Amino acid sequence: SSSMSEAVQQNPFDVDDSALDDAELAKLRDQQAMHVRKKEAAFAEGREAWQEEQQRCLVEMKDEGNAKLKAGQPAAAIRLYSEAIEMDRTMGERDEKFSAILYANRAAARLKQAECGWDEEYEAAERDCRRACERDPQQVKYHVRCASALSGVGRFDDAFQCLKVPLRRARHRARQRCDPRCHHKGQGRAC
What we know:
The protein is mainly α and 191 residues long. The protein has helices at residues 2-10, 22-70, 74-90, 96-115, 120-135, 140-152, 156-177. Helix 2 runs antiparallel to helix 3, helix 4 runs antiparallel to helix 5 (120-135) and helix 5 (120-135) packs antiparallel against helix 6. The protein is elongated, with a radius of gyration of 29 Å.
């Protein structure tokens, strides 16, 4: 029995259980179950640390992309945002709002390139804006950026449609802020 407890300290699965009585066998099974739970906890802790590290890397790539964009290097910013988007896609649990930010920032960089004569970037910017809007439809600037991309390729009606969403929201918010004693209430106008 003392040799069994020494072996269990190492790895409870390395014990020859053929010579054990029922009580020792039950104790061994409990120790094996405890060993598995400890390994699972260590794995979960390691996975959590790995995910935190990945998220930290994503934030760093986004920040580097932002710096490149501010420095007038939209092509470098696009590369960094693209790498971050690809890494974000491979992560298990994703933060949809952060994903939206990555797409919207890449769209901004593409719009900068389009302004420099890279006309094909308008359509790519529009696709990125739509992806951002899918992930965070409440963010007004994504709709505005999409409208900018669409107007860059002469799709003014579509651009106007993109702007309807944030305009409707702004109008709704303005009505909610209207003083109840105001004579405009109910007339479709804000104070």
